[in-house]
Amino acid sequence: NAGVTQTPKFQVLKTGQSMTLQCAQDMNHEYMSWYRQDPGMGLRLIHYSVGAGITDQGEVPNGYNVSRSTTEDFPLRLLSAAPSQTSVYFCASSYDRAPTNEKLFFGSGTQLSVL
Amino acid sequence: QQQVKQSPQSLIVQKGGISIINCAYENTAFDYFPWYQQFPGKGPALLIAIRPDVSEKKEGRFTISFNKSAKQFSLHIMDSQPGDSATYFCAASIYGKLTFGQGTILTVHP
Lengths: 115, 110
Prior knowledge:
The complex is a heterodimer of chains A (115) and B (110). Chain A is an all-beta fold and 115 residues long.
């Protein structure tokens, strides 16, 4: 099994550009989420989904959109990139829906720089 | 409040020593406390976890100590090895949402 696959691994954008970070999992997990990791701030939840067609906001959702049309895929869209969105982005999935969410499986991350 | 505070920010330990990382939380509704380990260039991976109805959980060289009254929990790594060098995150969960601490960069010198 591939687990959680994120593409691309690296991306450089100019301010105002839009792009989509891709995330796919092959474990038939119901729960999927996006985090951003910034130095000294840990991982912060952007958006999450407890199943196909269901999404909700996390701690830092502004500037990002998500959709969940299939169980396998959970893309993250940056509508108009800003330098403050320079970060490492992680997609994670879990077999459990809320509330237990006992074990998250993380992808290897996308390093995004916005100039 | 959803905040989880983690300390220290970085830690250097000699091989064979004990590494201790501490976390504190405010929200008493948190019901699950995992620790994640992250190697450079990789995503975090679950290391060990505890629920608030127990005070300690041990898995190999890794132990979580949990103090419900103080709203604190800690990770102890016994006989630390260079291969343990990584970033460690504590976290706390409520309604399935994990709130992570700021992370601790652990370096174990040979």
